[in-house]
Amino acid sequence: MDRSDVTLERMRTFVRVAERGSLSAVARELGVGQSTVTRHLRELEDAVGVPLLSRTTRRVTMTDEGSRYYADAVQILRLVQQAGDEARGTRGASAGTIRISCTAALGVLHISRLIFAFQDRYPDIGVDLSLTDERIDLVREGVDIALRLGPLTDSSMKLRALGQSRRLLVASPAYLAARGRPAVPQDLPDHEGIRMSNIAGSDTLALQGPGGERHAVPFGGRFRVDHGLAAREALVAGRGIAPAHHWLVDDLLAAGRLEVILPGYSPPPVTLSMLIVPERAGIARVRLLVDFLAERIGGIPGIGKPR
User: Fold this and answer.
1) Is 0.85 surpassed by the pTM of this model?
2) Which residues pair with 299 in a beta bridge?
3) Using DSSP, how many helices (H) and how many strands (E) does the chain show?
4) Sign of the C-alpha dihedral computed for residues 88, 94, 97 and 102 taken in this order
5) 68-98 tens-digit pLDDT
C-alpha cells in the first residue's frame, strides 16, 4: 500500500477517532460498522507507514506521530471543505455549521442567547458551542471562532476586539450583615475573599480609586474555584467578597441578592476579544456570526466599547 491510499475518508475516520477516543462511538456517528472504522485506520497507518493510534481495551489515544499527523489532517480536511464551498458557491450562502468556543460562564449566561437569536435569523446555520476557560488550539479542536476574556498570545489568529468587561466588588447582604461592610480598600484583608484559582495573582486585589489612584491589597479566603458560575453561587451563599464581571451578577444585583461594596473603587476592566481562524474567516456563515456577535455584544451588561 502506498501514499495514494491516504484517502479523505480514511483521514476523516482517523480525525474523529482521535477526537472521540472511541472506535464504537465513531462507528455510530458515521453509521458504519466498527470493523469498517478499524479497517480505515489500519489502511491509513499502512499507507503512512507509522502507527497513529495506540489502542487499549478502554480507550484509543494518539501516538506522538499520530498527534503530529492529526494537526496536519485537520488542516487538510478544512481546506478540502473550503474548496468544496467555493466550487459550489456556498461561501455566499447562509448554510452549514459553525463551531464556536467561549469562556464558560459568559457562554452560559449571555452568548448562548445571542446564538439563539442568530439562528432565528439564519435557520439553516448550525452552531456547535463549546464552553471552556482553557486556551485551546482552535485549529486542532476544529473551532472557527473563539470568545476570550483577558490577554491573548496566539498571533496566528485574526483578532477582533469586542469591548471591555467592567468588574465590581460584590457580596451578599447576609455576608455583610455577619462580617460588616468594608469602608476602604485596606479593610479587605480582614474579610473572606472568593478567588479564581485559574487567574494568576488572585491573592492580590488591584483596585482603581475615585481619583484614579491605584491600590493593591492582599486578598485571601478559604474558597478558590476555577469557574465563574461556581463563584457566583458562592457569592449568593454568603461565602465572601469577590471581584465579579458585571455580566456575571447583573441579575443578582437587580434582585437585591448581591450588593456592590466600595463603589468608588473598581478592579481594572478585562478585554473581551474574538479570535477567528484565518482559513475560516472568508466563509459566509462565519462572517455572518462574527458580525452579528460584534453588533450585539455591547448589549451584554458591563461590556463597554473596545479601547
Assistant:
1) no
2) none
3) 11, 15
4) positive
5) 999 888 888 878 877 776 666 555 556 788 9
